[in-house]
Structures are given as structure tokens and as C-alpha cells.
Amino acid sequence: MLLDEHHFDDATDDRVRGELSELLPNQVYEVERQPFLGLMSGLTNYTMADEFRVKQALDIAVATGDLLAVGKDGKTRRRKGTSIKSSDILIAPPQRPIFFVPQLKKSSSEN
Prior knowledge:
Largest sheet: 3 strands, antiparallel
Order of helices and strands: HEHHEE
Strand content: 5-15%
Helix content: 25-40%
Shape: globular
Low-confidence stretches: none
Distance between the termini: 26 Å
Mean pLDDT: 80
Structural class: mainly alpha
Number of helices: 3
Strand order of the largest sheet: 1-3-2
């Protein structure tokens, strides 16, 4: 894992999710092609989010095709953010979405 794992309480977890919802659109769409590890390196300056939370936050964008995640071979395409590998390349399509929807936290009744 790239970063040390943090254990968050609910308030900190909510804050980190909020940070990601603000940071990820700019970080992801600023560069047309970038390695996932490059994105993670850039985010470490702004948030305590670990690799797992970043992948979760990218899940909807990857699943809907707003962001492509491909293997280093350029052929393997990920279907969800949580399946992104550290060596994958993130590709922002030429047409950007109007907004970026972060993944919502599951309520305790859904668990």
C-alpha cells in the first residue's frame, strides 16, 4: 500500500470524503492521462485519504465511464473504482462531466 493506513472515526471519515469530493475532480481531469500512483502522490499533500478511500470515491466515475482506468498494458479496462490497481493509468475523456458525484456513506441500517 502506498500510504500508511489510518483508522478514522465517523467525523474524520466524513471530513476526508468531503475533501475528496472537492479535490478529485480537479486532480483527475487536470491531466488527460496519469498513473493512479501519480494521483495518489498528488493527493497526499491535501488529504489524509488512503488508497482504499480514493478508489471508493472514484467508483462511480469509473463505473459510468466518466473516467477510464486501464491496466498498464493499455488493454485491461476496470469497471469500478475499487478494482483499480496501483499500476493503472487514469484517462480523462475529452468531454468532461458537468459534475462529480462522490460515493455516499452507507447508513447503519444498510449494513
